[in-house]
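Task: sequence design from structure.
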């Protein structure tokens, strides 16, 4: 993997991806942040050596380099998921690339369903902890110790200082920002009523199909990490209705401006 990482990094550096300070992963339906970025360079995933390719129709497939709130940023416009047939190492490969290019902080967004029924669709949740239900680890491969500490500590995977700043910004801007536990499942099917009940029992406030693998690898690489979920639907097992993926995408887009405000204001302080 080290050889592949070096090839990818050399390619991106040759294309002008120069010393980004911060990485951002944009989740499902969350692309409007790019309107705030002064784009310097971009590269399609299918042109980047050793990079996976986004196969989900509402995930674009570009790596963007530019300026946001006075900082050099690298942004994943579209991420990878286990449900696309990728391995956990594939899903997290871009995090390793961003770290090698120079980032020290990683901000992650996703669209998720609210398990905690005090949370409503269209609101935001700051992830303070997670539950990995993806059936594996992105660190479980031969030679991982050559890339970082094999037995990565996960006692505080989300940076408490950044989370404190996020909460202060939300208060200042009048944004409703819940705080909770995110459960990551494989998907792509949505959950059954029984599964939603189980998730509530084990302590999840929201559920989605991404994020946790990238967070694990970011901690493996000693990056500062924070993540925000846009809550796109309410997962009430006693009143469960069929989910329309287009409605989820529309709800993500509707709630996104508040997430953009949080990210922009936070980046100014980093």
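Answer:
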């Amino acid at each position: 993997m080290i050889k592949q990482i070096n090839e990818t990094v050399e390619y991106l550096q040759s294309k002008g991806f120069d010393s980004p300070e911060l990485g951002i992963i944009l989740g499902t339906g969350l692309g409007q942040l790019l309107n705030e970025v002064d784009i310097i360079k971009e590269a399609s995933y299918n042109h980047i050596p050793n990079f996976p390719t986004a196969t989900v129709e509402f995930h674009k497939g570009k790596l963007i380099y530019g300026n946001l709130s006075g900082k050099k940023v690298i942004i994943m416009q579209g991420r990878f998921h286990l449900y696309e047939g990728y391995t956990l190492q594939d899903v997290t490969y871009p995090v390793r690339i961003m770290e090698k290019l120079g980032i020290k902080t990683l901000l992650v967004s996703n669209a998720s369903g609210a398990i905690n029924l005090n949370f409503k669709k269209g609101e935001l949740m700051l992830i303070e902890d997670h539950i990995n239900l993806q059936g594996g680890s992105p660190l479980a491969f031969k030679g991982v110790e050559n890339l970082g500490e094999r037995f990565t500590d996960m006692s505080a995977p989300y940076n408490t200082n950044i989370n404190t700043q996020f909460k202060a910004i939300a208060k200042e801007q009048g944004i409703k920002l819940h705080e909770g536990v995110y459960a990551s499942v494989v998907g792509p099917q949505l959950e059954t009523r029984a599964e939603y009940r189980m998730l509530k029992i084990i302590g999840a406030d929201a559920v989605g199909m991404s994020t946790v693998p990238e967070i694990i690898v970011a901690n493996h690489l000693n990056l500062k990490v924070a993540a925000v979920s846009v809550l796109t639907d309410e997962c009430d097992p006693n009143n469960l209705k069929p989910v329309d993926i287009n409605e989820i995408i529309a709800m993500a887009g509707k709630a996104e401006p508040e997430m953009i405000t949080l990210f922009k204001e936070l980046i100014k302080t980093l």
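The chain has six helices and nine strands.
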